[in-house]
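This follows on from our talk about sequence and fold. Can you supply me with one protein entry, sequence and fold together? Could you add the entry underneath, on a fresh line?
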Amino acid sequence: MKKLVESRSLDLIDMAVDLVYEGEIDLAREYIKLAREYSAKGKIKLPIEYKRKFCRRCNVPLVPGITERRRIRRKVLIRTCLICGWIRRYELRENKTNKSSECRSENREKRNH
C-alpha cells in the first residue's frame, strides 16, 4: 500500500511540473497539494529531489524561468518563487568534514617532508 501511495505522490508531482510548462499553474498547485496530502496520510517521506520541486509556501511547482528564479552568489544557490516570494538557499560548497580531513592530511605530509 505504501508503495502505491508513494508512486502516486511522485507521479502527481511530475505531472504538476508538466502542467506548469503548459501554463496551468492553478491545476499544478492542486496536484502538489494532493501529493502532499497523500504522503502525509500514508506517512511517507518524499525524496529530497521531489521536495525541492515545489514551493513550500504556495505549493507551486518550481520551474526555472517560469515560476522560479535561480541565482548563485558566493557559492550559495538562491531559489526564489516568483509567485509568492519564498526564498531558499543551498550551499554549493563541499562538506566541511571532507575539507578538514583533507587539510589535515596535507599538513601532515608537509610536516614530514
User: Anything to note?
Assistant: The chain has one domain: 2-93.
